[in-house]
Amino acid sequence: MKLHSLLNTLAKISIGLLLSLAVSAQSITIPHPPKAKKDFSDTEKCVAPIDIIRRNHASFLQHQRNDTMRRGIRTTKHSLVNCINCHVTQDSDGNYPNIKEGSEHFCRSCHTYAAVNIDCFQCHASIPTESDISIIP
User: How confident is the model at residue 104 (pLDDT cuts 50, 70, 90)?
Assistant: First the structure.
């Protein structure tokens, strides 16, 4: 009888935890990253449709990194610099958001939501560059 009582208590605790998770999940805000500053080209808004970018951007960036660093191939289509230059926008005071805090930064907004650590900016700039680097796409 004690085992039955123990299992009943564990079941109630489990249900309580699941319900509390469901309630707390409702308070999580779905990210709304800032829109791009400009279109990628005359015919394309971005380098790929949004659903493909959301699902595959890490692979695109890693492939770009490998082509650049290991093969010496420099293009702009999946360049992190171009993503930052296009998508990281200034606030109303003319300041760029900090990648390390808040959720206003284009990358941070989704990565916080997905609980994914961003390590790109240990080496790369998290705000747009002043100079426009011309590289053939």
Answer: confident
